[in-house]
């Protein structure tokens, strides 16, 4: 690299660093302003403190629940259900998509049913799940699975079908059978779609889990929301909401990183 | 009577494609022969059914009428004797170069250390030593097409079908690859059927040329490449005085077709 090029590169990097710094500072400032505004408006009773609580009280509630050891259980239960739900939902969706690919006849027979199931809000089946699987973690896990499985099936099956026909032609000219077409061409070709389904399903799984916990749970952040609601104690509700926001963001970021590693 | 049957023989082949939109005759009464170790080219415009003929020989399609034979035996499905090289290199992007080269073998049997050794040797022979662990996207278009060539050679096929393998490459890369392909085909004594729309390419590479007419595709004319041309390598052929004359006759045959349309 010449001196001229090096100087240019340095200047470019300095500019980038400045931009990153100013964006980061603004983001933090915005968060602080939001928390401060919330706190002040709530104390001044402009926001109803009973309904909207305030950051200091939420922090207190978190600290107390943590000290009582309850918080850990709530978080662990919800996180476990969510992870199990989105992994199982994705896996089951991919499996169903594979079965459809192997049987074009059944794929076409089932097509309208899948479309209806996909547009139906799965949480409407909540009570059914509770009766079928009992009021507990199994029912909630099944809800989380149900929310993501059909959409995964449709998306992944779609990408199986979108396989570049030239690759298929190549494999066939080498004498590949249908199973070999799937394992050596169709499935690897759809891998990016499967990984992005994984990312989408994290979010969907949270919906299934929280709604499931509303209906059935004795523990978990969704249960904490309902508990607070029934006592008309909105500190609990907002505490749970804040924790869900944080945890889901962390989980989405973690899955994103994991997926990126697999994308090479 | 002691004569061998031609390596590739099509007799009175019709092919009708049927889709939801209707039926269309893609090939009409196509008959052609390729002798063992011969290099034959089908020249035609796009839509003339050139690739369809290759798919028939590769056993990916069945003729509606007529027969397709390989060394005297009717074609029923893909055969290990036939290697198919497509227009795009179609290297699988999720496999390494070595993985791509061994792909054809992997589909038929277990890969042996000897296969890997042969793959390395062949890659080296086409000027690609040391790329085994790379991914397709790390290579240039010309390099990728050479990998595809090695992949086709690896399966041990003695009949190679080349579907416009040079069309996606820039001019100089194309000329070099043509020289390489002809040299390799001669060295390994392959029987080759090439498909192209490029007349110069056809003359530069082949021993004989069939000109294909359009919709439905049928054989319009047939030209042997003059012996003193056919003995030379592609780059030399292009400078040979007989090159232009041959080009003119093939051009006229193709052009007459255009007049019909």
UniProtKB/TrEMBL annotation, chain A:
The chain crosses the membrane at residues 21-41, 83-102, 114-133, 139-160, 204-229, 236-255. PANTHER family: ABC TRANSPORTER PERMEASE (PTHR30151:SF19), ALKANE SULFONATE ABC TRANSPORTER-RELATED, MEMBRANE SUBUNIT (PTHR30151). Belongs to the binding-protein-dependent transport system permease family. GO terms for cellular component: plasma membrane. It is a multi-pass membrane protein. Its main location: membrane. This is ABC transporter permease. It holds the Pfam family BPD_transp_1. It is found in: Cell membrane. Residues 71-255 form the ABC transmembrane type-1 domain.
TrEMBL record, chain B:
Keywords: ATP-binding, Nucleotide-binding, Transport. Pfam families: ABC_tran (PF00005). It comes from the Bacteria. GO terms for molecular function: ATP binding; ATP hydrolysis activity. Residues 10-239 form the ABC transporter domain. InterPro entries: AAA+_ATPase (IPR003593), ABC_transporter-like_ATP-bd (IPR003439), ABC_transporter-like_CS (IPR017871), ABC_transporter_ATP-bind (IPR050166), P-loop_NTPase (IPR027417). PANTHER family: ABC TRANSPORTER ATP-BINDING PROTEIN, TAURINE IMPORT ATP-BINDING PROTEIN-RELATED. This is Hydroxymethylpyrimidine ABC transporter, ATPase component. The lineage of its organism: Bacteria, Bacillati, Bacillota, Bacilli, Bacillales.
């Amino acid at each position: 690299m010449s001196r001229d090029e090096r100087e240019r590169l340095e200047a470019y990097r300095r500019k980038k660093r400045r931009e990153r710094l100013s964006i980061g500072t603004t983001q933090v400032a915005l968060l602080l302003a939001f928390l401060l505004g919330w706190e002040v408006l709530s104390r001044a009773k402009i926001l109803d403190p009973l309904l909207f609580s305030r950051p200091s009280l939420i922090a207190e509630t978190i600290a107390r629940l943590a000290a009582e050891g309850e918080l850990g259980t709530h978080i662990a239960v919800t996180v476990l259900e969510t992870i199990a739900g989105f992994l199982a939902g994705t896996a089951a969706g991919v499996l169903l998509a594979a079965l459809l690919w192997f049987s074009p006849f059944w794929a076409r027979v089932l097509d309208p049913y899948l479309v209806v199931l996909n547009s139906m809000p799965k949480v409407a089946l909540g009570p059914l799940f509770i009766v079928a699987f009992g009021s507990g973690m199994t029912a909630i896990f099944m809800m989380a699975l149900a929310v993501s499985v059909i959409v995964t099936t449709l998306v992944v099956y779609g990408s199986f079908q979108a396989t570049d026909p030239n690759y298929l032609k190549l494999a066939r000219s080498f004498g590949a059978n249908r199973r070999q077409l799937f394992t050596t061409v169709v499935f690897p070709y759809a891998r990016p779609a499967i990984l992005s389904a994984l990312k989408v399903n994290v979010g969907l799984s949270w919906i299934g889990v929280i709604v499931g916990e509303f209906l059935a749970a004795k523990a978990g952040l969704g249960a904490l929301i309902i508990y607070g609601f029934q006592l008309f104690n909105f500190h609990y509700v907002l505490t749970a909401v804040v924790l869900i926001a944080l945890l889901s963001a962390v989980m989405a970021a973690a899955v994103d990183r994991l997926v990126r590693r697999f994308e090479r | 009577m002691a004569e061998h049957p031609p390596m590739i023989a099509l007799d009175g082949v019709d092919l009708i494609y049927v889709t939801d939109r209707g039926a269309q005759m893609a090939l009409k009464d196509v008959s052609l022969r390729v002798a063992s170790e011969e290099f034959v080219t089908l020249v035609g415009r796009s839509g003339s059914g050139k690739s369809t003929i290759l798919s028939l020989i590769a056993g990916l399609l069945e003729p509606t009428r007529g027969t397709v034979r390989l060394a005297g035996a009717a074609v029923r499905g893909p055969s290990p004797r036939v290697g198919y090289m497509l227009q795009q290199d179609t290297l699988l992007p999720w496999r390494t170069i070595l993985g791509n080269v061994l792909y054809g073998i992997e589909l038929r049997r277990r890969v042996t250390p000897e296969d890997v050794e042969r793959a390395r040797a062949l890659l080296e022979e086409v000027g690609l030593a040391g790329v085994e662990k790379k991914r397709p996207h790390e290579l240039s278009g010309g390099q990728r097409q050479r990998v595809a060539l090695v992949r086709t050679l690896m399966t041990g096929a003695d009949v190679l079908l080349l579907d416009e393998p040079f069309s996606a490459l820039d001019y100089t890369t194309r000329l070099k690859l043509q020289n390489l392909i002809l040299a390799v085909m001669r060295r390994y004594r392959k029987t080759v059927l090439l498909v192209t729309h490029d007349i110069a390419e056809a003359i530069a590479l082949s021993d004989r040329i069939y000109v294909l007419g359009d919709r439905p595709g049928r054989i319009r004319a047939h030209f042997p490449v003059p012996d003193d041309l056919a003995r030379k390598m592609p780059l030399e052929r292009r400078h040979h005085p007989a090159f232009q004359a041959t080009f003119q006759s093939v051009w006229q045959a193709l052009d007459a077709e255009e007049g019909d349309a």
